[in-house]
Design goal:
By secondary structure, the chain is mostly helical. Helix content is 36%, strand content 0%.
């Protein structure tokens, strides 16, 4: 690991992250569950793709 430069490969990034002390790592807390509103296709959404086949 070179502390002066940015990692240039994924392997270097993983190695850098492995050196982070446990006291600085995030706690392993469960994420809150968020329920999204039901999604529906309205006329405006349908109009955006109505003539899509003409472009394909």
């Amino acid at each position: 690991m070179n502390a002066v430069t940015e990692p240039e490969t994924l392997s270097e990034l993983i190695a850098d992250c492995a050196l982070i002390p446990a006291t600085l790592q995030a706690e392993d807390l469960p994420l809150p569950r968020v329920t999204a509103k039901p999604w529906q296709v309205d006329e405006a959404c349908h109009a955006q793709v109505a003539e899509l086949d003409a472009f394909v």
